[in-house]
Write a structure and sequence with these properties.
alpha/beta, TIM Barrel, 10 helices, 39% helix, binds phosphoenolpyruvate
């Protein structure tokens, strides 16, 4: 049970030490939601240092499916953990599409992350033509099945982000009704194949979340949080999204604790 909504920023190949300083300054008085900033690998040590005294946590945007060795250009989950990263995005549409990553490779990355004590945020979602061909449920099932089979009970420790490819960077987020439906499909697949441990999997939505639509999306019970791209590198916009998340979060009270 994790009632605080989770907001994850994906900086993609953007950001700088100056932007980290702006976030660190803004974070002194941060809305009461869980917040993670996933930065490019070289910025991770700086992010960890800049955000250490704030409620914001940092993470990375990808990791290797290998633990170490002759893999030029790769970064292991263990390295990410040692540099202070608590989360790592795996299977983002820009990696599945632009780098032809397979479900098997993504599962290996998630496994490495869990072994390193880093929480994998596994992205899944259908392309426009798959949506139009009413293939969404099939695609989500295919993207989740290996994950469930290989991770077993460890599935309980991952985060899944439903990111329809057509919504990413389009300025056109999925409607709250569609998000509810897709997350219901995801929850059903997980429950059927993974059993009760699937209930702990936090289900996020990503795709053109901005300060205007964040409240409507985050207010849905099915939505445990959001993954944010473009708006995540604009501190005021990211903060507004986190404010919406805080309004929709049930924070533990002293009596309940
Ligand atoms: C993303 O990159 O995961 C994303 C959701 O991007 P955007 O918010 O810009 O659509």
């Amino acid at each position: 049970m994790n009632p605080a909504k989770l907001v994850v920023g994906n900086w993609k190949m953007n950001g700088s030490a100056a932007l980290l300083r702006a976030f660190a300054a803004a974070a002194r008085d941060w809305p009461a939601c869980e917040t993670v900033v996933c930065v490019p690998h070289p910025l991770l040590p700086l992010a960890h240092a800049a955000l250490a005294a704030t409620p914001l946590r940092c993470g990375a945007q990808d990791c290797s499916g290998e633990d170490g060795g002759a893999y030029t250009g790769e970064v292991s989950a263990r390295m990410i953990g040692e540099l202070g990263g608590r989360y790592v995005i795996v299977g983002h549409a820009e990696r599945r599409g632009g780098h032809a990553e397979t479900d098997g490779q993504i599962v290996a990355k998630a496994q490495r992350a869990l072994a390193a004590g880093v929480t994998p945020i596994v992205c899944i979602g259908e392309k426009a033509e798959e949506r139009d061909g009413e293939q969404t449920a099939l695609v989500l099932r295919r993207q989740l099945l290996q994950l469930v089979r290989v991770l077993g009970r460890d599935i309980a420790s991952i985060v899944v982000s439903y990111e329809p490819v057509w919504a990413i960077g389009s300025g056109d987020a999925a409607t709250p009704g569609l998000i509810d439906h897709a997350l219901g499909v995801v929850a059903g697949i997980l429950a059927f194949h993974a059993g009760p441990c699937a209930r702990s999997v936090r289900l996020l939505y990503g795709g053109s979340v901005d300060p205007r639509n964040a409240g409507a999306i985050l207010s849905r019970d099915a939505v445990a949080g959001v993954l944010v791209g473009a708006a995540a590198v604009v501190p005021e916009d990211f903060r507004e999204i986190c404010k919406a998340a805080a309004r929709c979060s049930v924070m533990p009270t002293r009596d309940a604790a």
